[in-house]
Write a structure and sequence with these properties.
The complex is a heterodimer of chains A (561) and B (35). Chain A is mostly helical and 561 residues long. Chain A has helices at residues 11-22, 25-28, 30-37, 41-71, 77-82, 89-93, 96-123, 132-142, 161-179, 182-211, 224-232, 242-255, 262-267, 277-294, 299-307, 309-315, 320-323, 325-329, 334-371, 375-395, 401-428, 431-439, 450-471, 478-491, 501-505, 522-557; strands spanning 515-516, 519-520. In chain A, a hairpin with a 2-residue loop joins strand 1 and strand 2 (519-520). The longest helix of chain B is centred in the middle third of the chain and has 26 residues, at 3-28. The chains are: A mainly alpha (561), B mainly alpha (35).
């Protein structure tokens, strides 16, 4: 096994890198949109409760698992998990901690490249004077969305040359920073990027507060304060709605970057007896600040200010960032529009790159530990892997391959991994040993109530999320669950929603046709992308198997080590 | 913006800001951070 000299240069650097890992595009796009789709103020209370009962415990657990493994010379999830149990199974479950990152990186780097490209376009004032539909069309042209299919199967191949160039540039930046290591690359970027992100965020939030009533003709709700009012009007009825609770718990999950293996990997470079309790809280709450204070104060209030509340409720979505925001900034005049564009897309780029660098680290740690690869070799192979995995998401963007990756790696794999690690920590490793790990060297006193929460409440929370995601019926409303249970007892069947995990696996409510008149269909492209992801898991598992055999061989030669 | 929405926003955002700042200051003044 390679001697690992990698490490963090300072505590602040580690915290900023961890916060940068958590602060991502989701803070500025997913959170406000989830809030809009779940009743505005109705969403906030379940969100905060989920943070306290699931987010904070998971942060402590992941930091503790990471430091525990790192102290024993392991810096990737398969062997970190392996060090906590004698059962061989865990190292293969740990494969998810690398796979998830590779899968997410593939499409995340692509989005990151859009933000880079749009930052330059804002400087060049490309969007000035364009109408709403023209700004939207700029995005469609950029990603190569076309209305003409290439064959009878309806499968469209997108070949957006400029977007591919921007993607390669973005990937190269990531590879370069990763090749410089933790303190020489990631930490340096985090120390510059995170303060800059806060400056951009505060500037945009002040703009959102200041626009107020825009006086758009024929629009009575075109006032940014209406947007703030919608997001922050408390609605206690929501506390009884399981759909809102699930959405809130899901958001906490994604925003903190738990269940991915990145926190484990970063924490693996924390030294023995060094604090993790306060570090985890500082990074976690910093992410909360960016999301709740800044994330809630930008996209929705500005959009409501110019488009009205009804339009936002109907159209709120991820693509608003690219298809709508440049048009709205245009209302502020050419100079401010350019400044706001740079702040907005620059902010998204920073949020993106600090997260994508974190996602590259598990692979780097794995190949360095197990195969003694240099930083450069690790970073270059990562770049190559991501290029291969990302190409289908670019070329078959319109076919929905991008969404397939997001669903399987950015949703399903996260939940599976989080359930596994909380069971490993609280039940296999043991909550008493686990609690000692969390509190070892702690700079804050952790409330003892968190011990039973970690053992019982957080796993229950996660298992409920997993089961409901697996078998969600129809639209997932309370009435749909009642209908489903009735159907189960009356007819022995379950009405799986097409977006439930089982519904997705078996293409419920979808026609499964791979070829039409000899031409491949959209379904074919989606299923092939699933196969590619599956092959990635198999390939990584095989690498873990080889590494495990190498370790056994090394131990038999040097039994003392 | 209605009074209850404003109150709720200030309460939540204020709490999150204060807790974040508290933890961050605690880290900055921690004796263990020798680097």
């Amino acid at each position: 096994m390679a001697k690992v000299k990698e490490g963090w240069g300072s505590r602040i650097g580690l915290i900023l890198a961890m916060a940068g890992n958590a602060v991502g595009l989701g803070n500025f796009l997913r959170f406000p949109i989830q809030a809009v789709q779940n009743g505005g103020g109705a969403f906030i209370i379940p969100y905060l409760v989920s943070f306290l009962l699931m987010g904070i415990p998971l942060l402590w657990v992941e930091w503790a698992i990471g430091r525990y493994g790192g102290v024993r010379g392991n810096h990737s999830s398969p062997f970190i998990m392996d060090s906590m149990s004698k059962q061989r199974l865990w190292k293969y479950i740990g494969v998810f901690g690398i796979f998830t990152n590779l899968g997410i990186l593939s499409y995340y780097t692509y989005i990151e490249s859009w933000t880079l490209s749009y930052t330059f376009n804002s400087v060049l004032q490309t969007f000035n004077g364009l109408s709403s539909s023209e700004v939207s069309q700029v995005f469609n042209d950029y990603v190569g969305i076309s209305s003409t299919s290439s064959g009878a199967g309806g499968l469209i191949i997108n070949f957006p040359l400029l977007a591919i160039v921007a993607f390669v540039v973005t990937l190269t930046i990531n590879v370069y920073v990763l090749s410089k290591g933790l303190s020489g690359g990631i930490e340096k970027v985090a120390k510059i990027a995170m303060p800059l992100l806060l400056i951009f965020g505060v500037f945009l939030a002040i703009m959102a507060f200041s626009i107020g009533d825009t006086g758009e003709p024929g629009c009575t709700t075109c006032n940014s304060m209406v947007g703030f009012n919608f997001l922050w009007k408390p609605n206690y009825d929501s506390l009884g709605n399981p759909k809102v609770w699930l959405a809130a718990a899901g958001q906490i999950f994604f925003t903190l970057s738990v269940g991915m293996g990145t926190i484990l990997c970063y924490a693996a470079y924390v030294k023995k007896h060094e604090d993790i309790a306060l570090n985890a809280m500082t990074a976690g709450w910093m992410n909360g600040f960016v999301e709740i204070v800044l994330g809630a104060s930008i996209v929705i209030p500005i959009a409501v200010g110019y488009m009205g509340l009804d339009w936002v409720k109907e159209n709120a979505g991820f693509m608003m960032a690219f298809k709508t925001m440049p048009y709205l900034f245009g209302k502020w005049g050419p100079v401010l529009a350019s400044l706001a564009g740079v702040a907005w897309f620059g902010l998204l780029f920073i949020a993106g790159i600090t997260s994508s660098l974190a996602m590259g680290t598990p692979w780097m740690g794995f190949v360095k530990d197990e195969f003694n690869w240099s930083r450069k070799k690790g970073a270059y192979t990562l770049g190559l892997l991501i290029l291969v995995l990302a190409l289908p998401t670019i070329l078959f963007f319109q076919a929905g391959v991008f969404d397939e990756y997001d669903y399987w790696t950015g949703t399903v794999a996260l939940v599976i991994f989080a359930v596994s690690e909380i069971i490993l920590f609280g039940w296999v490793f043991g909550i008493d040993k686990g609690w000692n790990e969390i509190t070892d060297g702690a700079d804050i006193k952790i409330p003892k109530i968190y011990k039973p929460i970690i053992k019982w409440v957080t796993p229950l929370f996660l298992i409920i999320i997993l089961i409901t995601s697996l078998i969600k019926p129809l639209n997932g409303e309370i009435a749909d669950w009642q209908t489903a249970v009735n159907q189960l007892f009356m007819h022995g069947s379950w009405p799986f929603a097409s977006d439930s995990i089982i519904g997705q696996i078996f293409h419920v409510n979808q026609e499964v046709i791979w070829f039409k008149e000899g031409a491949p269909t959209v379904m074919f492209a989606k299923d092939m992308s699933r196969l590619l992801l599956l092959l990635t898991i198999v390939g990584l598992s095989y690498m873990v198997h080889i590494a495990s055999n190498k370790r056994k061989l090394s131990q038999s030669k040097n039994p003392i080590s | 913006m209605s009074t209850d929405a404003l109150t709720f926003m200030i309460a939540v955002q204020g709490t999150v800001t204060i807790v974040t700042a508290y933890f961050f200051i605690k880290v900055l003044y921690s004796k263990k951070d020798k680097k």
